[in-house]
Each structure stands twice: as C-alpha cells, then as structure tokens.
C-alpha cells in the first residue's frame, strides 16, 4: 500500500511516546496547533522506508560499479546498520528482495577490498532478510546465492566473516526443504567440520576464543537444525554424523557451558533418529 512505510514509521514513533498503560491517560481533542505539529513530524521525522531502502541500494550499486576500496568500509557499515533495522520487518524484507537488493549485499560480502567487519555486516544483513521468511529464502535458493556464500566462507580465513556468512547460509536454508538438502549434499562437508573444529584450535583464554566459540556454536546449531528438520531423512543424519561427530565430541568437556549444551543437544537429536525403523548410525 502506498505510504505504508510512512505510517509504519509514525506508529513506531507514536508507541515510543505513549505510556505503558499502567496509569490513566487523559484524552482530549487535537488542537490546530497539535495538528500542525503532527504534520511537521510526518514531514521531518518519519521515514518512507521503502524509498530509503531503494536509495541505499542505489548507493551500493554505485559503489560496486565504481569499485570498492577499504576506505569505504565505514560508510558501508553505517548504511548497513540503517538497512538492517528496516529489513528485520518481514514485509520490508520482501520489498527489499523484490528490489534486487540481495545482489548488492552479496557484492559487498564478496568484495575483498572491504574490511572483514564490513563484509561480515553485509552477511548479517542477508541473514536478517532471510530468517523465517520463506518467500525470501526461495529467492536466495533459486538465484544460486548459496553457492556464492559458500564460496566466500570456504575461501575466507577471517573468523568474523566466516561466522556471519555461515549465519546467512543458516538463515537462508532452515525450514526450506530444497535449500536444506542442497546444502547438505554440496556444502556441508566443506563448511561444518571447519567451523565446528574452530573452537578447539585456540586457547580458551585467548582473545580469539570468543570469536571461534561463536563460529563453532553456530555450526553446531545449524547441524542440529538440519538433523531435527521436518525434511530430514536417515541418509542426511548419517552424513552429518560422520562429518561432525569426530570433531565435536571433545566439547562435551569444554569450559564453555554453551558449547557443552549445544553439543549435547546435537547428540540427542542424532540419537532420536536411531529408532527401530532406522539402521544404526555409523561414524566413519
């Protein structure tokens, strides 16, 4: 609906100005002065979010056409921060996807001239667009974006970038039957063991520990989701078990409570698929 972005913005603003309902509110008719003030708010304070998204996409397109450089990274991060707030709304995510915004974001993720922080922010925005949004997930899947994201992940040595790209992949495939199966068949082997092993390769007291733990935890969560999915099958569980169990069992005794619990959840999920109708899971 035309103007929906304006009214959504006004609603956000109005809610921020309204009491929490715990005390009575005095309701009075609007004066002419109040009406003029409200009109001013509409003009100056409320964003037309679809229009602004299109403007941001235009800026990114121009940057990509002219060639990105590292000194553009801070500007990219600021624009992505603004964009992510808007696309976290399901309706706005669909609008942005239909604008073709994914190609811009993927271009940013793939740009090796930007800092890892800027590229990771673009990956995080892709995740926000895709999460729990089947319409957007379908666009991602049919356009071949999973292949491009996986390529960035496999090539990157930045833990931060790998974490956010895996986040984007996870949000793009979970609860989408074809995307889940495609990932397991083509990219699980190249992504999950590397991520799950990450936390075991650094000292838990080092500065790098938080980043590697986050990456490992995300991979364990994704693996668990794929095992527990409505679209899972014994062959999938067998393959994932063979890939990840050899590198995750040590986390059952890890200092991190999060890693211990996430690993235990994965093992429990795998065990549930060893019922009477399934052959025993074999760990290669």
Q: Which features does this protein show?
A:
mainly alpha; 15 helices; disordered N terminus; 70% helix; 284 residues
Folded structure, characterized:
The chain has 284 residues and is an all-alpha fold. The protein has two domains: 48-164; 187-284, no CATH class. Helix content is 70%, strand content 0%. It has helices at residues 4-17, 32-44, 49-66, 73-87, 90-98, 101-110, 116-130, 134-142, 145-155, 159-173, 177-186, 188-197, 209-228, 234-248, 257-272. Helix 3 packs across helix 6 and helix 9 (145-155) packs antiparallel against helix 10. It is globular, with a radius of gyration of 23 Å. The protein starts with a helix and ends in a 12-residue tail after the last helix.
3D shape: globular
Helix content: over 70%
- What class, by secondary structure content? mainly alpha
Number of strands: 0
Query: Which strand-content bin applies to the residues?
Result: under 5%
| Count of structural domains | 2
Count of individual helical segments: 15
SSE pattern, N- to C-terminal:
HHHHHHHHHHHHHHH
- How would you sum up the major sheet? none
Mean pLDDT score, rounded? 85
Q: Report the span from N to C terminus.
A: 55 Å
Low-confidence regions = 1-5
Radius of gyration: 23 Å
GO molecular function: adenyl-nucleotide exchange factor activity
Domain Nucleotide exchange factor Fes1: 9-93
InterPro entries: ARM-like (IPR011989), ARM-type_fold (IPR016024), Hsp70_NEF-Inhibitors (IPR050693), Nucleotide_exch_fac_Fes1 (IPR013918)
Keywords: Repeat
């Amino acid at each position: 609906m035309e103007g929906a972005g304006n009214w959504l913005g006004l609603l956000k603003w109005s809610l921020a100005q309204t009491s929490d309902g715990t005390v009575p509110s005095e309701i009075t008719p609007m004066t002419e002065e109040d009406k003029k003030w409200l009109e001013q708010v509409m003009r100056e304070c409320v964003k037309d979010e679809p229009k602004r998204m299109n403007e941001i996409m235009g800026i990114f397109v121009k940057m990509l056409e002219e060639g990105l450089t590292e000194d553009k990274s801070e500007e990219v991060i600021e624009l992505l921060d603004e964009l992510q707030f808007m696309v976290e709304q399901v309706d706005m995510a669909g609008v942005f996807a239909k604008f073709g915004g994914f190609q811009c974001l993927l271009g940013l993720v793939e740009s090796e001239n930007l800092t890892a922080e800027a590229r990771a922010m673009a990956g995080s925005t892709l995740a926000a667009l895709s999460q729990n949004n089947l319409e957007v997930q379908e666009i991602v899947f049919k356009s071949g974006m999973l292949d491009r994201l996986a390529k960035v992940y496999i090539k990157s040595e930045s833990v931060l970038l790998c974490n956010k790209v895996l986040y984007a992949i996870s949000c793009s495939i979970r609860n989408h039957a074809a995307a889940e199966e495609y990932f397991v068949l083509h990219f699980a082997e190249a992504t999950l063991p590397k991520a799950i092993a990450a936390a075991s390769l650094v000292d838990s007291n080092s500065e790098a520990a938080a980043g590697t733990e986050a990456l490992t935890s995300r991979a364990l969560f994704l693996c668990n989701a794929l095992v527990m999915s409505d679209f899972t099958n014994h062959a999938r569980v067998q393959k994932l078990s063979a890939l990840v169990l050899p590198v995750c069992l040590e986390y059952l005794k890890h200092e991190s409570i999060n890693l211990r619990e996430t690993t235990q959840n994965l093992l429990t999920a795998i065990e549930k698929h060893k019922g009477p109708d399934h052959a025993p899971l074999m760990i290669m």
